[in-house]
Specification:
The chain has a single domain, classed as HUPs (Rossmann fold, 3-Layer(aba) Sandwich). Helices cover 40% and strands 17% of the residues. It is built from 7 helices and 5 strands; from the N terminus they run αβαβααβαβαβα. The protein has a 5-stranded parallel beta sheet, sandwiched between helices. β1, α2 (41-51) and β2 form a beta-alpha-beta unit. The longest helix is centred in the N-terminal third of the chain and has 11 residues, at 15-25. The protein is globular, with a radius of gyration of 15 Å.
């Protein structure tokens, strides 16, 4: 059977209608998001664990302008499309969309996850409360997964500078 990870990309403008179609099929949609600038073992482990929380994993990748706002000039290292396609190539990832905002509030409103997964560097109190309200108001659950110690893009970039 041919493999085509590009077919996992969903246009952000079509996300709400895609979600309606998925809801008719049933199952549990798990959603997470991030920059995914340099994919590493921490990302792969996190995404695999996220997928275990449901039947379909949708990953929202921050746009280039959002990454710059979050991480500063010089980031991202890879373009939004490159980052989205690399994430889509992972077996644990069902679908990927690129969203334009720094915060995931509108992305979550369109995706309507059954489960929203974030890394364990967050708590329910430190999570963006607008994101939390959007997920919980549509009946979604929030799960915090442990981070993989010592595995981050920032630490990789620091090591590369040395």
């Amino acid at each position: 059977m041919p493999v085509n990870f590009r077919s996992k990309l969903i246009e952000y403008t079509e996300l709400a209608s895609w979600r309606e179609g998925l809801a008719r099929l049933g199952g549990k949609l798990v959603v997470t998001n991030g920059c995914f600038d340099l994919l590493h073992l921490g990302h792969a482990t996190y995404l695999e664990a996220a997928r275990q929380q449901g039947t379909t994993l949708l990953v929202g990748v921050n746009s280039d302008s959002a990454v710059r706002a979050l991480k500063g000039e010089g980031r991202p290292l890879n373009s939004e499309m490159d980052r989205a396609l690399v994430v889509a190539a992972l077996e644990s990832v069902s679908y990927v969309t690129i969203f334009p905002d720094v915060r995931a509030t509108e992305f979550l409103a369109r995706a309507k996850p059954n489960v929203y997964v974030k890394g364990g560097d967050y708590t329910l109190d430190t999570l963006d409360q607008n994101e939390r309200r959007v997920v919980e108001s549509s009946g979604g659950q929030i799960i915090l997964l442990p981070v993989v110690s010592g595995k981050s893009t920032t630490s990789l970039l620091e090591r590369a500078k040395k």
